[in-house]
């Protein structure tokens, strides 16, 4: 059993990883609508990677008999008007969630 502080932080990180997946799905959808299949595919791969990160932490917590709390995942709400804005937002988010 992990201590509560570690457990709380890991639960938060699961949520952040799943939110990241949602955000990258939103970016996938933006590029899909723009007809930019390569960019869309890249963001789909990122979304699946973020889900994998969440599942690694989730399984680690289960293996350590740690209580898992699945909180609501926030809705990605940014509206993009330029392709470059999506790339910048993705980089900013990645820097945030990695920190
Ligand atoms: Fe991640």
Structural overview:
It is a single chain. The chain is mainly α and 99 residues long. It has a single domain, classed as Up-down Bundle (Ferritin), CATH 1.20.1260. Helices cover 74% and strands 0% of the residues. It has 3 helices and no strands. The chain has helices at 4-33, 37-63, 83-98. Helix 1 (4-33) packs antiparallel against helix 3 (83-98). The radius of gyration is 15 Å and the shape is elongated. The mean pLDDT is 95. The structure holds fe (ii) ion. Fe (ii) ion binds next to helix 1 and helix 2.
Keywords, please?
99 residues; mainly alpha; Ferritin; 3 helices
What is this structure's SSE topology?
Elements: H1 4-33, H2 37-63, H3 83-98
Helix pairs in contact: 1-2, 1-3
Bound molecules: fe (ii) ion.
Concise account of the structure shown:
The chain is mostly helical and 99 residues long.
How many helices?
3
Number of strands: 0
Could you say which overall geometry the principal axes of the C-alpha atoms support?
elongated
What's the CATH superfamily, by name?
A: Ferritin, core subunit, four-helix bundle
Q: For the report, how would you describe the main beta sheet?
A: none
Terminal residue distance = 25 Å
> Any guess at the CATH architecture?
Up-down Bundle
Domain tally: 1
SS strand fraction? under 5%
Rg of Cα set: 15 Å
Any idea of the CATH class? Answer: Mainly Alpha
Instruction: Give the integer mean of the pLDDT values.
Output: 95
N-to-C order of helices and strands: HHH
Based on secondary structure, the structural category is mainly alpha
CATH fold title? Ferritin
